[in-house]
Each structure stands twice: as C-alpha cells, then as structure tokens.
Amino acid sequence: MHQMIQRKKNGDFVYYTCDAVTTPHLFTTKFGGVSTGHLFSLNLGFNRGDERENVLRNYQILAEHFGVARERMTMTKQIHSDIVRVVDEKTLGMGLGQPMSWKADAIVTNLTNVPLCGYYADCVVTLLHDPVSRSIGVCHSGWRGTAHGILAKTVQAMRENYGADPKNIQAVIGPSIRQCCFETDTDVPDAMRETMGAMVEPFIQWREPKYFIDLQGINQLQLEQAGVETIIDSGLCTKCMQDEFWSHRATHGMRGVQAGVIMLEEKKK
Predict the structure, then answer these.
(1) Which of 13, 127, 229, 234 has its CA 20 to 30 A from that of 220?
(2) Cis link prior to 247 (omega < 30° from 0)?
(3) Kind of pairing between the strands at 170-173 and 230-233
(4) Which residues of 21-56 are buried (b: 16+ CB within 10 A; e: fewer)?
(5) For residue 267, what is the DSSP state?
(6) What are φ and ψ of residue 25, in 5° steps?
(7) pTM of the full structure
(8) What DSSP designation does 145 have?
C-alpha cells in the first residue's frame, strides 16, 4: 500500500482515502452496509441479485458520510467503453435521483456537493481532482477501457469543459487487480499493443502459459502522457485482499460492487 493511502474505519464502515487528494473522496470495501449473504455488507450494485432496498440503504450510508442528499449521488453506467460524460444540473443524480439514461465509464463535473461514483470489483477506478479549476472526475477502466485510453480522455474532458490544467490534477488509482493476479490469454496484450504500440511492452509479463498485465502501470503512463504530475497508485490488489474487497476473479462473479467516490466541496468562506 502506498504511504499516502489511508485505511479508515467508522463503526463498521471501512474505506480508503489518499492524502494527495484534497477534496472529499474514498474507495469503499465490503464493509459498512446492510446487505446479506454473499453480498455482505456494503454492496453498491443494483444488478448483483441484492434487494433494492438494501442497495438504496447502502447509498444512504455513503450519502450521509459525504453530508449530501442521496439523490445527488451520480452514477456511471459502465460498459467497458471510452465514453466520458459531463454531470451538470440536468444530469446530476443519474441512477439515484433520476432514472439511469446514459452509458458512461467516466464522468466529470464542477458542481459542488455532487458525489461521483465509479465501480469496481477488480477493474481500475481512478479519482481526479483539480483544485485550481475546481473540477473532479471518476474513471472506470478495465482492460478494454485502458486499451482505448479512457483515463487520458477523462483528463481531456476536464480540460475542455472546465479549463483544468493537467499539471494541477491530483489523481489516485484505486484498489484493483494487479499484475500479480491479472492473468490473461493473448487477447488482452494484443488489444493493448494494437492501440498503444510498443509502449505497453514493459507492462506485459509472460509466465507460461499466461500473460500478466500491469493495468495500473499502463493507466499511470496514460496520466503522465496527458500531463498529470501528481499520481498516487494505491498499491492495493483486490484479489490478494479478497477478505476486504470483492474480486470478480476470486469469486467467479459471485460478488458485490465497490465504488470510488469523489465530491467537490463548496468553497470555504
């Protein structure tokens, strides 16, 4: 675990934060909610077989932590794409305060008191904050999104919509499956090479009979190439730490969903 990553506990609620990110944020774990069975306890996925009321209560717990109405929390709708959406007054609360009507693996905003939620159970979720332009973003990137450069496109969206200078952006790469555990066939490295060329070779390791991919390293490289200088990789592997996090691979899909959440605070007077 990176030295700037902090494990925190409030009652049963266990989560991680990053000292380098200077706006409210966190990465959830399994713990702190009301779900039961194999979804025990802070499941944030409506499509995992949980009771809807349990999931809504889990979001209420998160909303209370951030000090906002649950209806302001705004969700990605992840399809392993490179789609980035802007959260404005018309789209805030997507998925909770209003029916889900978009597909987006990354979302950005400059609205205050609007927590942005990106989801993981092995995939990489990165939280972004520019304190100068006062804008934030959350980006979900599995291997497909990584291959299509979605994280750099999220930085670009913050730049185009809010004038964010990448040099000012604080980025934290959250808990996710790491190279020690992310074994694949040839399809994943081939997709990486097709879109990014030779630059990905240092992040692809062959251990017969499988390839092992460093998704965090590739995402960090994309951030660096986009001009981001403050980048913290949490160092947390969801599969290695399956007692604390749901891992899709470790559970063969029998799992709940965690979230990386970030919110822009109002300016202090």
Answers:
(1) 13
(2) no
(3) parallel
(4) bebbbbbbbbbbbbbeeebebbbbbbebebeeebbe
(5) P
(6) -165, 165
(7) 0.98
(8) H
